[in-house]
Structure formats: structure tokens, C-alpha cells
Design brief:
mainly beta; Immunoglobulin-like; TIM Barrel; 4-stranded mixed β-sheet; 5 helices
């Protein structure tokens, strides 16, 4: 029987009992195509010479991914050019960016390389598996302990307490009289408190522990101004970004005693509790005498010390010193605080208006962007 090769015509002739039968042979399928790495590195990887598309030693083999072929070779240091040839011939070959140009390769050291060809995209890829060379003092200087921040090896469970579970409905309004614009509770509105609390979190500690959690990260939990804004812009402080008292838990979430009990139970299970603490802003209790709130850039009006001399706060960052300021003259706007809010914040030093930028409402662009993280985490 005559067996057609790849180059044989699609017609094969067989003589059977004196009769001439014409049989149509199946066309070559994509799976029958072969691919070889060719170039002036072939003699380095086992071929008798270079630029030989029919060398089996440099053939790429099918992978588990359709249309993807690959092979691994140890290539000595040197300068080379290569491409991929199809079906042991030059009729079809692919190089740089899928075109006809050879692909350059420069190896300062011997390397183990994996050459890949995608027959669907007609592209050649290269993966460096290892680079061999003598270990030197320069290499030693590059070796260092991995950078690890405290807590980076924890398995965190991040909780927005108000949206997790309502274990104690009696604290939903934080004992504040009035409607939602007074106490901030309205579970039908995504911008208001929904009732989740520390009690609900504590009730589900078994579930959290079962996930393999080693640390719980709480969204800001300290006492907040319940509602800020007016009309359609009014919303509640359920996320904890409008802190007035850094010494107690927001009453919508529970009490300090409930938090202490949660922490104690978590510690008994080997779980740490992290606090997300807002350090670059507090509740919005400062108004401006001018009645205007558009942000004013430092380049337009710089800060002034109490003597009226301009300065840049960045020059004092990390120094432990800062110029004395005058609330009436140091800022683009003149800060004013209503008598009812004069002592609204705890610790008391947060009530000093010269500790705030007094430049207007930020739009989070340019110099008014948050250039550093707005929170720190502490663990207990």
C-alpha cells in the first residue's frame, strides 16, 4: 500500500484486484502541522547545522493549550537570531512581530529558555527559565530580607460594621430623638445608617473564625456627627469619616464595653482586631466668615504665620516644629465655629481651628488631592 506523505497530492492510487480505484485522502489538519525553532542557535541546541527547518532536535511540541507549541533549550552565552518555520520548510515562517524578520537574541550568560509559538496568532514568544552565571559580590549586594510590613502575614476580614449584622436594634438611632436627619438611621437609604453594630459582629464571630481569619479590620468606629449636609446632599456618618470623639465608639455601633468584650473573645480565638483611624479630617464643624467655600490653591494664596510671613507646610513635615498661626490672618478663609460646636471634638485640641487647612472644599484634584493615606491602623 502506498502511504502519502505531507507533500503527496490529495489523490492516492491503489491497485486492487486489477481494478483502479481512486481514493480521496484527508486534507492535512492543523494538528498535523509541525513547527521548528530555526536560526544560528540550532547547532547550539543539537542540530547538525544552523537555519535547518527540518531539524527534529529543535522542533516545538504541542502543549495542553490549543494552537500553542513550545520547547525548552539550554543556550550558551552569545548573540543569535531566530524564527519559527512550519512543516520542515521555508514556505511558511514567522519571526519578529509575526513577520519575516529574524528575532534578535543577546545572552550575556548561558540560559535555559522556553520558545513558544502561537499558531493562531502567528507570534513567537520567549520565556527565560533560568540564567546561569558565577555568583559574585554584586549578586550578594542584591540579596536582602523581603520587605514585610507589620500585619502583612495576617488573614484579614474587613468589616463595615453598620452593614454587617444588626445584633441590637435598641442602638439603631443612637438614642438621638427626631427623624433620620437627626439620628441618621434609615435602612432604606444607602447613605444612612442601616443598624449593623458590634453586637451583630460578635454574634457571628464563629463564622468569621471558620473562614480562617487571623485579624478583623473594622471601618472607622469612633463617635461621629450623625448627619452632615442639607437636602439631597444630606447623609449619615455610617462609614465613620466624621469623627467628633476619638475616645468612644459611635453609639450607633454600641458601647466601649461591647467593643472590649468583642476584642477579648477575638483574642481568645487568636484573632487580632485592627482599628481604621482617620487622621486627616474630622466632623465638618468649621464654617468660613466669608461665606465662600471654593478651594483656593497655595499658589494663589500661601499660608501665613502669625506675623504675616508666607510659608509652605511641606517644609516643616517631619521636623517636629511648625510656625505659630493666627486664625484671623493665616488662611485664605477665616474659620468660625458656632458656640454649640466649640467643644464638640475629643481630644480637646482638635477644636483648634488653626489645625485645619481652611482653604475650602476639596475636589480631590491637584494639590487638594489626598497625597497620603488618610488612616492609620492600630491593633489590639
Amino acid at each position: 500500500m502506498f502511504k502519502p506523505s505531507r507533500s503527496t497530492s490529495a489523490l492516492a492510487l491503489l491497485a486492487l484486484s486489477g481494478a483502479l480505484v481512486v481514493v480521496t485522502a484527508p486534507a492535512a489538519s492543523a494538528a498535523e502541522r509541525s513547527f521548528a525553532l530555526v536560526g544560528d542557535l540550532q547547532s547550539e541546541v543539537g542540530c547538525p547545522g544552523d537555519w535547518q527547518p527540518d531539524c527534529g532536535e529543535s522542533e516545538l511540541l504541542a502543549t495542553d493549550t490549543p494552537d500553542l507549541y513550545a520547547a525548552q533549550f539550554d543556550v550558551p552565552a552569545g548573540t543569535y537570531e531566530y524564527k519559527v518555520a512550519v512543516d520542515d520548510a521555508w514556505d511558511e515562517a514567522y519571526g519578529l512581530n509575526g513577520g519575516a524578520d529574524n528575532i534578535p537574541l543577546v545572552l550575556p550568560e548561558a540560559a535555559t529558555l522556553r520558545f513558544v509559538f502561537d499558531d493562531a496568532a502567528k507570534r513567537v514568544g520567549l520565556e527565560v527559565l533560568s540564567v546561569r552565571g558565577e555568583y559574585t559580590d554584586e549578586d550578594d549586594a542584591l540579596v536582602a530580607a523581603p520587605a514585610r510590613q507589620p500585619g502583612s502575614d495576617e488573614q484579614f476580614y474587613f468589616v463595615m460594621t453598620d452593614r454587617f449584622a444588626n445584633g441590637d436594634p435598641s442602638n439603631d438611632t443612637a438614642a438621638i430623638e427626631g427623624d433620620r436627619l437627626d439620628h441618621g438611621f434609615d435602612p432604606t437609604d444607602k447613605g444612612f445608617y442601616h443598624g449593623g453594630d458590634i453586637a451583630g459582629l460578635h454574634d457571628r464571630l464563629d463564622y468569621i473564625e471558620g473562614l480562617g481569619t487571623t485579624a478583623i479590620w473594622l471601618t472607622p468606629s469612633f463617635k461621629n456627627r450623625p448627619v452632615q449636609g442639607e437636602g439631597v446632599n444630606a447623609s449619615a456618618g455610617y462609614h465613620g469619616y466624621w469623627v467628633t470623639d476619638f475616645t468612644q465608639i459611635d453609639p450607633h455601633l454600641g458601647t466601649n464595653a461591647e467593643l472590649e468584650a468583642l476584642i477579648a473573645d477575638a483574642h481568645d480565638r487568636g484573632i487580632k482586631v485592627y482599628f481604621d483611624i482617620i487622621t486627616n479630617h474630622t466632623a465638618d464643624v468649621i464654617a468660613y466668615e466669608e461665606g465662600e467655600y471654593a478651594y483656593i490653591e497655595k499658589s494663589v494664596e500661601p499660608y501665613l504665620d502669625e506675623d504675616g510671613e508666607p510659608f509652605d507646610p511641606a517644609d516643616y513635615a517631619g521636623t517636629g516644629t511648625f510656625p505659630a498661626l493666627d486664625a484671623a490672618t493665616s488662611f485664605p478663609y477665616t474659620p468660625v465655629i458656632s458656640p454649640a460646636d466649640a467643644d464638640a471634638k475629643v481630644p480637646a485640641w482638635l477644636n483648634d481651628p488653626t489645625l485645619y487647612h481652611n482653604r475650602g472644599d476639596s475636589t480631590w484634584t491637584g494639590s487638594r488631592s489626598r497625597t497620603a493615606t488618610s488612616w492609620v491602623s492600630t491593633t489590639s
